[in-house]
Amino acid sequence: MSDQAQCESHLVGRHLIIALSGGIACYKIASLVSSLVQVGTTVDVVMTDAATKFVSPLTFESLTGRQVYACQWDQGESKTPLHIQLAEQADAMLIAPCTMNMLAKLATGITADPVTLVTSAIDRTTTPVLLAPAMNAKMYAQPATQRNIKTLENDGFTVLESTEGWQACKTIGKGRLQEPEALFDALASCFG
User: Fold this and answer.
1) pLDDT at 48
2) β-strand 172-176 against 163-166: which pairing, if any?
3) C-alpha to C-alpha distance for 18 and 16, rounded to whole angstroms
4) Which of 18, 43, 176, 180 has a 20 to 30 A CA-CA distance from 24?
5) Quick check: is 98 catalytic?
6) Can you give the pTM of this predicted structure?
């Protein structure tokens, strides 16, 4: 079995949460979600309001065949609060892009949007939560950002390394979101 086929096999039948916070790198996540669904992964997408300004929830509903959770006040038809239900069903969660703002919220325990609310309901001792930071190089280098990344790693999150390259602000630097293929492999490694 090839490395890619083995990687894909780790995701078959898994239930993942892919969460997006508001950054231009949101456009990359549609490709990731499509790839996950194609190998037989159930994907629930959770978005902040800011993320919906970059990519429509309809994009992800079309790719997954499932409702997107984009408002913390939407409970659906379940008697169990939706954020609890999603957290309990998940085998793993990825927040990508994970903006400077999202890192700060997670590091301080603020639950003011669907992404932080679902994340707060996950037991990270049994369910991995991966964070893929994406932001301008100057924002990435800020002491607050680096401090929050260290805090989150100490709290049991897996923080994926941002890459260096061309950024939407027309500069080159560290802070780019990893490519969808690398995010796919990082999720598969949770189970392999």
Assistant:
1) 97
2) antiparallel
3) 6
4) 43
5) no
6) 0.94
Q: What is the separation, in whole angstroms, between the first and last Cα of the chain?
A: 14
Q: Which tokens belong to 175?
A: 């802070």
Give the E-state strand segments of 35-118 in sequence order: 42-47, 92-98
Find tokens 């309990």 and name the residue.
88
Q: Classify domain 3-189 by CATH number.
A: 3.40.50.1950
Whether the predicted pLDDT of 1 surpasses 60: no
Residue-level pLDDT at 77: 66
Burial letters 12-50, b for 16+ CB under 10 A, else e: eebebbbbbbbbbbbebbbebbbbbbebebbbbbbbbeb
Task: Considering the candidates 7, 71, 98, 169, report the single residue annotated as catalytic.
Answer: 169
Q: Domain-by-domain residue ranges, the chain?
A: 3-189
Residue 24: what residue type? I
Integer Rg of the chain from CA: 16
